[in-house]
Design brief:
Helix content is 41%, strand content 13%. It has helices spanning 4-7, 27-38, 50-60, 76-90, 108-123, 140-146, 150-160, 170-181; strands at residues 18-22, 42-47, 66-70, 95-97, 131-134, 192-195. The strands form two sheets. The protein has a four-stranded parallel sheet, sandwiched between helices. Strands 5-6 form a two-stranded parallel ribbon.
């Protein structure tokens, strides 16, 4: 079910677009999948968590709207299969959104350098490339690694941040991805959109969303 804050968002910003969301079965990826579907996109959820991904796809809509494919982002063949699957099922591909930090075991600066290089290389084809650098989000993977429940993890990360009175949630990162994937950002490429409440120094890159639009 789409949460109330997302369901009130309008207008539909991704009508007619097709998106692959890697890591889309849980956490930030799940929130992004929900928001993209709500905004009219056809979505292929690509993840190694088969049961979660299949369950989410069924929850979000019929196969003609949203479906799942097994995909390990460190595998070139899996990524190629995800792209081929999206094109065969939905006849096109407009957006790829996902976490690059798992695919590239490198520093934040190296990932941002990759973003800049791809911006130049792919811009000639009309493809935009952007990243999102969020502060800590209490996703299941993060809370498990911290050995804390969600509330404790949120309190811990909030106390370490600069912006008081607000907690970064997966939906906040999903909204940033929505902007970058939509026509609202049709001339935005090479951007590192920092979603961290002003805490943009000396923290790890928790996620990098790579949006490729037509």
């Amino acid at each position: 079910m789409v949460s109330s804050d997302i369901s009130t968002a309008s207008p539909r910003k991704l009508e007619g677009k097709v998106a692959i969301i890697t890591g889309g079965a849980s956490g930030i990826g799940e929130s992004t999948a929900r928001l993209f579907v709500h905004h009219g996109a056809k979505v292929l959820i690509a993840d190694v968590q088969d049961k979660l991904g299949q369950s989410l796809a069924m929850d979000l809509g019929p196969p003609k709207i949203v479906s799942f494919v097994h995909c390990n982002v460190t595998s070139d063949s899996d990524l190629e299969n995800a792209v081929d699957t999206a094109v065969s099922r939905y006849d096109q591909l407009d957006i790829i959104s996902g976490d690059l930090s798992y695919a590239y075991k490198a520093s934040k600066h190296a990932i941002l350098g990759l973003n800049n290089n791809l911006t130049v290389e792919l811009g000639k084809y009309g493809i935009r490339v952007n990243t999102i650098s969020p502060y800590g989000v209490a996703t299941p993977m993060v809370t498990s690694g911290m050995q804390m429940d969600k509330k404790a993890a949120e309190e811990f990360m909030s106390a370490a941040g600069n912006l008081r009175g607000a907690i970064l949630e997966p939906e906040d990162v999903a909204r940033a991805a929505l902007y970058l994937a939509s026509d609202d950002a049709k001339y935005v490429s090479g951007l590192n959109l920092i979603v961290d409440g002003g805490h943009n120094h000396n923290h790890p890159l928790f996620g990098a969303t790579d949006s490729l639009a037509n």
